[in-house]
Amino acid sequence: MPEHTMLYKESELLPLSALQHLMFCERQCALIHVEQIWEENFFTAQGRILHDRVDRGGERPGSYVRVEYGLPLRSYRLGLFGRADAVEFHKKKIDGKEIWVPYPVEYKRGRSKPRDQDCDRVQLCAQAICLEEQLGLSINEGSLFYGKTRRRERVVFNDILRKTTEDAAKRLHKLISSGETPMAKPTKKCASCSLREACMPKLCQKRSVRAYIDTNLEGM
Ligand code: SF4
After folding, report:
1. Residue of minimum CA distance from atom 5 in ligand 1
2. Rounded to an integer, what distance in angstroms lies between the CA atom of residue 159 and that of residue 165?
3. I need a surface site. Which of 47, 76, 207, 219 has the fewest CB within 10 A?
4. Which of the 8 DSSP states describes residue 183?
5. Based on the number of CB atoms within 10 Å of its own CB, is 15 exposed (0-12), middle (13-18) or buried (19 or more)?
6. pTM to 2 decimals?
7. pLDDT tens profile 129-149
8. 41 C-alpha to ligand 1 centroid (Å)
9. Which atom of ligand 1 is the closest one to the Cα of 185?
């Protein structure tokens, strides 16, 4: 169970979705959340449609599972707020008592990511930490549902993933409060980035105009 230390004030909370942008690319995160640029491409449009469908519901839970869609989330410890795609409540018997245990489920386009790309798992873990703080209980696992493969990936919220999530939330607050957009570091992710046009990763990687003038034109 996390400590309920109020680290952030209500006015300092940042959207949970920004955490995923940060894990994808810090420059992308700053372009969206500092410079307020947003461009929709095929991938984001498909993801949005998937989320819209989820918000309308559609699952037929059995009697041991109840599902809530679009549940508001908030953590003062991480300094984040947002909404959960879906939270299942599994009826379990613990110490002779029947308890509804929350189980967050996040819907994603595409397929399960390799171990070194934790952005989806971090976002789900942040949702779980929000729910723990709001409901005052521990959540050990949740699932990511991938639209392309139509499969669930079970995610265990272990200490390593929790630490990665907390570190990412701290980095996010630092980035947004700096008000600065980092230089581009082109990677293969740029091919699917919704902000490639606005970012111009290859151009922005080069030295700034100021550095060029300082080096080449001074004293002319
Ligand atoms: S194009 Fe590449 S460097 Fe630029 S924001 Fe997107 S992922 Fe980041």
Report:
1. 28
2. 10
3. 219
4. P
5. middle
6. 0.81
7. 999 999 999 999 999 999 888
8. 13
9. 3
- In angstroms, the CA 171 to CA 198 distance is 23
**Structural domains of the chain, with CATH:** 10-216 (3.90.320.10)
- Closest ligand 1 atom to Cα of 184: 3
Cβ(118)–Cβ(101) under 8 Å? no
Q: Is the shortest distance between the CB of 189 and ligand 1 below 6 Å?
A: yes
In this prediction, residues 185-201 reach a mean pLDDT of 89
Regarding the beta carbon of 124 and ligand 1, being less than 6 Å apart is answered no
Q: Does the beta carbon of 190 sit less than 6 angstroms from any atom of ligand 1?
A: yes
CA dihedral 144, 160, 24, 102 (to 10 degrees): 30
What gap in Å lies between CA 80 and CA 36, rounded to an integer? 18
- Atom number, ligand 1, closest to the C-alpha of residue 28: 5
Question: Is 154 in a helix, a strand, or coil?
Answer: strand
Ligand 1 centroid, distance to 32 Cα (angstroms): 11
- Chain CA centroid to CA 30, Å: 14
The interaxial angle of helices 119-135 and 17-24, nearest 10 deg, is: 150
Helices (H), the chain: 17-24, 26-33, 42-56, 119-135, 159-178, 196-199, 201-205, 209-216
Structure tokens at 108: 């994603």
Least confident of 143-157, 161-175, 205-219: 205-219
Phi first, then psi: what are they for 71, rounded to 5°?
Answer: -65, 130
